[in-house]
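In the laboratory, one determines a bound structure by crystallizing the protein with its ligand and collecting diffraction data. In a computational setting the workflow is compressed into a single prediction: the sequence and the ligand go in, and a structural description comes out. We illustrate the idea with pyridoxal-5'-phosphate.
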Amino acid sequence: MTDMEVPARASISPAAIRDNVTLLRERAGGAAVMAMVKADGYGHGAAPTARAALAGGATWLGVAILPEALALRAAGFDVPILVALGTPGEPYDRGVARDIDLAAGTVRLVTEIAAAAARVGRPARVHLKTDTGMSRGGATPDDWPALVDAALAAEATGHIKVVGLFSHFACADEPGHPSIQRQLNVFAEAIELAEKSGLRPEVRHLANSAATLTIPAARFDLVRPGIAVYGHSPIPRAGTFGLRPAMTLTARVALTKRVAAGSGVSYGHTYHTPAETTLALIPAGYGDGVPRHGSNALEVLAAGRRRRIAGRVCMDQFVIDMGDDDISAGDEVILFGPGDHGEPTAQDWADAIGTISYEIVTTRIGPRVPRAYDEVVHKGSE
Ligand SMILES: *Cc1c(COP(=O)(O)O)cnc(C)c1O
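The predicted complex, in C-alpha cell form:
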C-alpha cells in the first residue's frame, strides 16, 4: 500500500508548527521558549515537531518522561531537554549520561539523581519543582526548604547542578482566576528562598500555553507552551490568538450506496434516513481516533459541505448521509483541520463531545493512521 492509498491519514504542517512557535516567542517577550513535545509531540510526531519548533525559535524541548527525552537525544537533538515528571526507580544514569535535564520535586528524587550522577561521573542538571497551588507535582511551600537544602547538599558534592526552578499553573486558561495571582506570589517566594539559600538557577519557569499568551508576569526566563505549538487555542473562548492548527485528518470514501427512507444505519440503528438518500462509508473509526461518543454528533467536510456522522462510530468506519449530493468512492473527506475549506477543527470536535482539543489530537489519532509531513521546514517564514 503506498502512502496515497491509505484510507485515513493525518497530514501535519511543520510550517504551521514553526510559525506558531515564532508567534509564541514574540508573545514571550525576552523569555526563551521550551516547546513541549511530550506524548509524541501531542500526537504530531515528537522529532518532526521538535525540528519545526527549533526552526521557529524554540531553544529548549520539554517532555514528560525520561524515555521520551532519550529518544530525542538518540534522534540527534542536542538542545536542553527537560523531563518534567520524575518517578523513583527510573534509569537516571542514562538520563545523566545523555545530559538530560531532570525535574525533582522531592528529596528522595534529588538523592536518587545525585547517586546516578555519582555513578556516571558527571553532574546531573536538575530543575527543582515547587507546587505553588495545583496540588499535583512538586514540593509544597512547607516542603520546599528541605528540598532546597537537599539540592544544596548535592551541589556541594558536585553531583548535581540546579539549573532551574519551576512550577505549573492550575487555571491559567481561566483569565482572572484568583489562583493565578496566588500561584505567582508563591512562586516568587519559593524563588527568593532558594536564591537566598545559595542556589543560582539559570532559568525560572512557570508558563504553559495559556500563561505565555495572556499572563506577562508569568514568563520569567523560559516559557513552556504545548498545545499552542500545535496551533490550538489554550483558551478557546478567547479566540485563536493567530495560531494555526498543524494537523489535518482526512479519509477517502470507501463506498456509496442508495438506500430507502427509514433505513436504520450502523450498530443499534441509532439513525434512520429521513428520505431516500445516498450514504457514504468513511473508513475511519474509534480504532483510528474518531471518538465513539461522537456518534450522531461530530461533523466532517464531504463534497463541500459539513455532514454529521449518521449513527454509531464503529471501530474502523462510520457512515454519513449525503442526501442527493454527489459523492463517489475514493473522494476525500476532511474530518478536521485548520478550517480553511470549511472543515471542522479539532476544537469543534472537542466541543461536540465535551473534551479539549488536546485529547482529540494527542491521544485519539491511533497508530493505524500514518502521519504525513507536508513540507520541508526552513528557518524563518518564507
Ligand atoms: C504539558 C506541559 C506544559 C504545556 O501545557 P499546555 O497547556 O499544552 O501549554 C507545560 N509545562 C508542563 C510541566 C507540562 O507538563
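Residues 36, 38, 64, 84, 168, 208-209, 224-228, 234 surround pyridoxal-5'-phosphate (CB under 6 Å). Keep in mind that any predicted model is a hypothesis to be tested, not a measurement.
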